[in-house]
Amino acid sequence: MASFITHPRLRLIAPLALCAAILSPAAALAASPRAPVWATYNPTTRTAHLTVISAYGQDTYNFNGGTNGHFVFTVPLGSKVMITYSNASTMMLHGMEIVKWTGKLPLATIPRPAFPGAASPNYRHGTPSGVTQTVRFTASKAGRYLLICPVRNHVKFGHWAWFIVSRTATTATGVLK
Q1: Is residue 117 left, alpha or beta, with left meaning phi > 0 and alpha meaning psi from -120 to 50?
Q2: N or C end of the chain: which has fewer CB within 10 A?
Q3: Does CATH number 2.60.40.420 belong to domain 39-176?
């Protein structure tokens, strides 16, 4: 095969330059989308700031993109928790509530919030699309809890995540697994 490149050094460099030109847009594209930060923690005020979005990324039953417990929040014991909650669904109402983990999902009866204030306003009936609300409470007891959408049958359809109050955590985290 004949080459249009006649200089010997350019013949060596040209294939490398071609590979770099082909791969660099893909590498830049792969590196550019940043994962959302779902949790921050201020150790001075012992405040966990969490973002919870129903129907994130797709109009379905999920919190921050995770269904059936595939999203996990962890906060240190005693944290003041401030949740910014919103419903991104264009099709249905959603709500958010933190309830005690009893060993099974609350499919028939929705329990009361595990901590005073640990639910979005009108949580049993839901929040309209595009509405953002603030929820505040203190994570006063260590353990495993559920973050659920208490609107009728939504837990059954996978609209739940884990909420862990940890004796050993030193920061708040929110992880899609």
Answers
A1: left
A2: N
A3: yes
